[in-house]
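Can't paste images in this forum, so I'm doing it all in text. The chain is below; anyone willing to post the predicted structure tokens underneath?
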Amino acid sequence: MQSATTNTEYTATPSSTNDQTSNSAHTDANKHQFVSLTKNEFSFLNKKRKSWKFANPKDLYTFRDQPVGFFNHLLHIVIFLACSFLFISIYYLPFDKEIINGVGSYNTITPLERFSRTLLVGLILFNLNSLRVNLKAYSIKRYWFAMAANSLFKVVILNIYYLLLISLSMAFLGASKGMDLFSALEIFEASADYEAFLIFDTFICVGIILYGFRFCSKELK
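Text version of the structure:
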């Protein structure tokens, strides 16, 4: 006896085909459905788009199609240079030298501090270079100085908040032991916990820089 194999084919009925077509059309319509804005919402978005953006890289990236005016461009250059000088003065100028009579001057920066400062500056330069590379792929007039200044200024403001938090914490700890802020800082720098604090401080500063420059590495298209 020979066994016969029956091949069954599925044939779509016209009704099922029409249902699938209507469902896909309905889905596409939902994807491209626009939501109407109220007058207040439209006015708010226009103000956000045309507002001056300083220490606000998020809005600058969101409204990157908005042209940067010439006066704003000059302000961005000034802010960028001021913030750059601030970072150079902190990380490179020889403010950490002490003079001993009969011996001379010596540098008080530890190898860990030097590594931390080099890492932070290198991270800033890396993000600025990423911004330059993105602008080569999709050029926007006057955008480099605008984003660089906003990101640097954002980092400076976040560092100020961080320093204020540390100062308040040290002042509180010093007051609990009957010392002022400067005495508490001197004792803390000479303690064994200072090296551990430097590691913690490096992680915090790296996080601040990554957060402030997070829009420099994003695509502009």
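The helical segments are 14-31, 39-50, 57-62, 70-91, 111-137, 143-176, 181-189, 193-212. The longest strand covers residues 97-100.
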